[in-house]
Amino acid sequence: MSERVSTHGQWSSRFAFVLAATGSAVGLGNIWKFPYITGENGGGAFVLVYLVCIALVGIPIMMAEILIGRRGRASPINTMRMLARDENRHGIWQVVGWSGVVAGFIIISYYSVIAGWGLAYVFRSAAGVFNGVDAAAAKSIFDGLVLDPEKLLAWHTIFMVMTTIVVSRGVRSGLEQAVRVLMPALFVILLLLVGYAMNTGRFMEGVAFLFKPDFGALSAGGVLTAMGHAFFTLSLGMGAIMVYGSYLPKDASIARTSITIAVIDTLVALLAGLAIFPVVFANGLEAANGPSLIFNTLPLAFGHMPWGAFFGTLFFILLVFAAWTSAISLIEPAVAWLVENQGINRVKASTLVGVVAWLLGIVTIMSFSRWRFEFNFAGEKKTTGLFDVFDILTANFMLPLGGLAMALFAGWFMSRQSVVEELGMGDRVGFRLWYYVVRYVTPVAVVVVFLQLIGVIDIKDWK
């Protein structure tokens, strides 16, 4: 087969791709979700299991998604259509591409609203709003934002414009230039926050909590949580890594690149834990406070610290940067498809996707106030209506099924010769190990996580 060329250009180097894909993977989940689920599931034991899951689930699927993307050199929809044709498979496989594009589109609609909270908190922290606040005041500040549709719409609009501008500028001038600035800045800010945490007097307690295993505190449900987070934290199943892979130079090693991305993504999560837990412990707060850890608990801590306003502002800038690098990858698959199939330029395509996602985001905004309703999912009551519906639809259904489909396509429906050729590892031990894992181990693991997430099996209380 002759080498395909992406009509959108390609990354200038493997390093640029690593930055971009890491930016896609590093998001809100690394900064707040990883620390609080670690707190809920046994600390160091959970971290150890999580690392194993990254190796057995995350990296194999990422390699599969990148190789599919680079093989097709197009948007996820067109890539799956072309590769199915090349491998003499049914055209139904393009549904996998559609699912990824639609999932990313739905996610960016509410992701932008949540990122807007972070933007709002940058300015609130810088203005000293949190200085000396108590728990009730911190909650009142948060509720005053979330329950005010006009404020949320303003911040949502600003963040969506930021994202659309970057994507409209193309692969090298937009995506690559953004991540070359944002990712190093993210690491610098994170290291500054870790340095600050080292001076709280409780840093070693945070280190012990993260890295000292206590397997007695880890349930089977915690193992599944680790497996599920390993899958979702790498932005798998939504077409983002696939379309980024389509811009990857032919001579770049997919295996080395995937491992590098997974390591950096995990490092960010661990550094976030090292920055957050000492601050939490130093202020006598709970490590397992869930989503409120960032917007209710940490402002309370920053409000009573020396230089708290400065470091609080840094923290929320970090949060916005992490969200921004993920957001640009979420709309890129839809933009790429519009450019390829509808004959419009990148600026118009980006604007169209951004405007429609912005409009859909209004549904999320109203879900926190006037359109709120309750429903049950897998025995758990949800109270924010359509926002939770979007979250459940994507995280619990579309992403795991999309990731599973990519593993099956690469492992079972592409010819072994095609896979060997695209991975560039040769048919040696390393390739055979990955091939076995992606064909057998990874699909079983994803199916188990999927069944647990949708409530078909419930082993949260197993020991």
Which descriptors apply to this entry?
463 residues; mainly alpha; Hydantoin permease; two-stranded antiparallel ribbon; 18 helices; 74% helix; globular
Describe the structure.
By secondary structure, this protein is mainly alpha-helical. The protein has one domain (14-453): Hydantoin permease (Orthogonal Bundle). Helix content is 74%, strand content 1%. The protein contains 18 helices and 2 strands. It has helices at residues 14-25, 28-40, 44-72, 76-86, 94-126, 135-146, 149-168, 171-197, 203-211, 220-232, 240-245, 254-282, 292-302, 308-342, 346-367, 386-413, 416-423, 429-453, and strands at 375-377, 380-382. Strands 1-2 form a two-stranded antiparallel ribbon. A hairpin with a 2-residue loop joins strand 1 (375-377) and strand 2. Helix 3 crosses helix 18, helix 8 runs antiparallel to helix 14 (308-342) and helix 13 (292-302) runs antiparallel to helix 14. The radius of gyration is 21 Å and the shape is globular. The model has no long low-confidence stretch (mean pLDDT 87).
* SS elements, strand count: 2
Which H/E pattern describes the elements?
HHHHHHHHHHHHHHHEEHHH
Radius of gyration: 21 Å
CATH topology call: Hydantoin permease
For the biggest β-sheet, the strand order reads: 1-2
Number of H- or I-type helical stretches:
18
Helix content: over 70%
Q: Layout of helices and strands, plus pairs?
A:
Blueprint (H helix, E strand, L loop, with lengths): L13 H12 L2 H13 L3 H29 L3 H11 L7 H33 L8 H12 L2 H20 L2 H27 L5 H9 L8 H13 L7 H6 L8 H29 L9 H11 L5 H35 L3 H22 L7 E3 L2 E3 L3 H28 L2 H8 L5 H25 L10
Antiparallel strand pairs: 1-2
Helix pairs in contact: 1-8, 1-12, 1-14, 2-12, 3-4, 3-9, 3-10, 3-12, 3-16, 3-18, 4-5, 5-7, 5-14, 5-15, 5-16, 6-13, 7-8, 7-14, 7-15, 8-12, 8-14, 9-12, 10-18, 13-14, 14-15, 16-18
